[in-house]
Design brief:
about 170 residues; alpha/beta; 5-stranded parallel sheet; about 50% helix; about 15% strand
């Protein structure tokens, strides 16, 4: 396994919340692929979807993910990153943690968040569909998985980093 820990999961699974906590506990840098794309383009993910379309965003996401996988630390992927066969291939050899979430919990966490363009409209229905489509892909790339339902971010980190392994 490399020095890169990758978090995957559906919107609302906790990647952007658990990631920084896990990185801090391990004294590693944290990087969020979506945040890097937003910083580089000067636009939100929602704006990229609206202006350029999903295929253009997915191409950016695939390229950015491949680049960021080269560095050590904790990396949070966008929920749809696993749709790319190239990204799934690139994840081999890395510690990939699938943060699992039920549709009910994801809906509660995501709410009516306009920053998530694929969830606009019927949030619950779209999340159920995304979970059904993507769960097999998350399972394919994951080296481990943890349910985030009814667990605090700190409790999830505790599951991922036994106290004796933490450097901090």
């Amino acid at each position: 396994m490399s020095g890169r820990i990758v978090l995957v999961g559906a919107p609302g699974s906790g990647k952007s919340t658990v990631g920084p906590l896990l990185a801090e506990r391990l004294d590693l840098p944290f990087t969020d692929v979506d945040a890097v794309i937003e910083r580089r383009t000067g636009r939100s993910i929602a704006e990229i979807f609206a202006d350029d379309g999903e295929p253009a965003f997915r191409a950016m996401e695939e390229q950015t993910t491949a680049e960021l996988l080269e560095a050590e630390g904790v990396l949070s992927l966008g929920g749809g990153a696993v749709l790319s066969a190239s990204t799934r291939q690139a994840l081999q050899g890395h510690r990939v943690i699938w943060l699992q979430v039920s549709a009910a919990t994801a809906v509660r966490r995501v709410g009516l968040n306009e920053a998530r363009p694929l969830l606009l409209g019927n949030v619950r229905g779209r999340l159920i569909k995304l979970l059904a489509e993507r769960s097999p892909l998350y399972a394919e790339v994951a080296t481990e998985q943890v349910s985030t339902d009814q667990r605090s971010p700190a409790a999830i980190v505790d599951l991922l980093v036994p106290a004796e392994q933490a450097r901090a």
